[in-house]
């Protein structure tokens, strides 16, 4: 799919005259929203289940993803559960439209909580809409080990769309005596920011920043983990060129090109964040890049942030979750 996207984008170069860098565009201009921030005794997980690229979904066609939601211990109570349906190529007669879908979880119809969308921001033949529909999950971890979600095209007027996959985020509480229970503070952010360093957009412009507002007592921090989700992210061809980067508490600048000096300053003064290259992996079957990494050493007492940068990869930044485990 990513290679097909690139071939179509390349074919459009001759027809495009002006690229707008303001408003909806390939620039990082739609920061993710914080939808949950709390401190609990519990844990969390994010999974794509058995998601794979759907291909075109016509009227009355459906697409199903199954999730394994088994967690150790007992008495787990869901605090926050979100379903993310990642969709692309939503169109009718070669014009971009919003998809008309019905989403069922364990055969119960869900109502969409919010929809996030973005477009490339300039007129072109293939300026179809892309986005993510978000639903509140209805699962009970004490009663089920498996969870099934089905997406159906219910537009009798003939519009079609493709689904790249479905994500399930679950944050649950448990009893303090449970050995798997942790004291955590979490931030959940979501949205849709399409970024692509092409057509006049530089990698610095094609950078989406995510903020985790709030203060932390670093002496009480045991660990910190960051999860980021980027549909279409993950350049699939070879070569030495860096096609995407993940930053955590690190601004782009001259130090980013001097890793030894950065590490020395960090050891001496605790200065600097982290930068990682080509962290997202995708292919023709699984088209959603997911990265989960330990960011404990880069955590700050306040104003923590992450940034995802494109360099001729093309991606949609949709989710970022920061989970900080506290010491007993």
Produce the secondary structure layout:
Elements: H1 2-12, E1 33-47, E2 56-57, E3 62-68, E4 77-92, E5 95-96, E6 101-105, E7 108-109, E8 112-118, E9 129-136, E10 146-153, E11 160-173, E12 182-195, E13 207-215, E14 221-231, E15 244-248, H2 259-269, E16 274-277, E17 288-294, E18 302-310, E19 315-326
Antiparallel strand pairs: 1-11, 1-12, 2-11, 3-10, 4-5, 4-9, 4-11, 6-7, 6-10, 8-9, 12-19, 13-18, 14-17, 14-19, 15-16, 15-18
Describe this entry's structure for a reader.
- By secondary structure, the chain is mostly beta strands.
- The chain has one domain (2-326): Jelly Rolls, CATH 2.60.120.
- It is 7% helix and 48% strand.
- It is built from two helices and 19 strands.
- Strands 1, 2, 4, 5, 8, 9, 11, 12, 14, 17 and 19 form an eleven-stranded antiparallel sheet that branches. A four-stranded antiparallel sheet has the order 3-10-6-7, with no helix packed on it.
- A hairpin with a 2-residue loop joins strand 6 (101-105) and strand 7.
- The longest helix is centred in the N-terminal third of the chain and has 11 residues, at 2-12.
- The chain is flat and about 60 Å long.
Which ranges are low-confidence, i.e. pLDDT below 50, for 5 or more consecutive residues?
1-23
CATH architecture: Sandwich
CATH class: Mainly Beta
Q: How many domains, in number, for the residues?
A: 1
